[in-house]
Fold this sequence. Notes:
By secondary structure, the protein is an alpha/beta fold. It has one domain (2-142). The protein has six helices and eight strands; from the N terminus they run ββαβαβββαββααα. The protein has helices spanning 12-17, 32-37, 96-100, 118-129, 143-159, 163-172; strands at 2-3, 9-10, 21-27, 44-53, 59-72, 79-93, 107-110, 116-117. A six-stranded mixed beta sheet has the order 1-3-4-5-6-7. A two-stranded antiparallel ribbon has the order 2-8. A hairpin with a 5-residue loop joins strand 4 and strand 5. It is elongated and about 70 Å long. Residues 151-159 have low confidence and may be disordered. Zinc ion (ZN) binds at residues 73, 75-76, 78, 135-136, 141.
Amino acid sequence: MLNDTLPKYFDPRKYANNELAFEGNMPLNQFEELCAILASDEGNAFIHLDFRVDEDRRYIATGSLTANVQVVCQRCMGAVDHDLEVDLALGFVYDEDHAKNLPNNYDPVVMTDGEVILADMVEQEIILALPIVAYHEESGCNPTAQKYASSTDDAADDEKPNPFSILAQLKAK
Length: 173
Ligand SMILES: [Zn+2]
């Protein structure tokens, strides 16, 4: 059975025992930690997960996570479009010790009181899937324009002394 309304929290054991599935869009702007890394908080992530109990009685889910994100170009600091497509194979565990016992093909997701906060899980999966460094294609990268813009900004801040602080210095004498 496919649920097209995403739950806020879910109990993976219930979903796995009943072989449930869910899918839906999640706005990126709800992921604070992620948005601090990205160049823009616009867009959605789309997640689909099929739950089941595997042959070793593990609670698992397989599916996919896709998103179009704007990462920061490390050459010009501008935004670079990045299509993210992740195949998910998740193993739900009670604690870090159980996580160590999972076969390598599963990403461990630790439950809290038997539940998982969907947004936290999706955010971590997206962060793990981001490129470590991103650059524009040579033709689309414009480091000089950006450097010029930021150096004039800096000059305005650094070189013009604050008139009030000068006044304060004069008064102090
Ligand atoms: Zn660039």
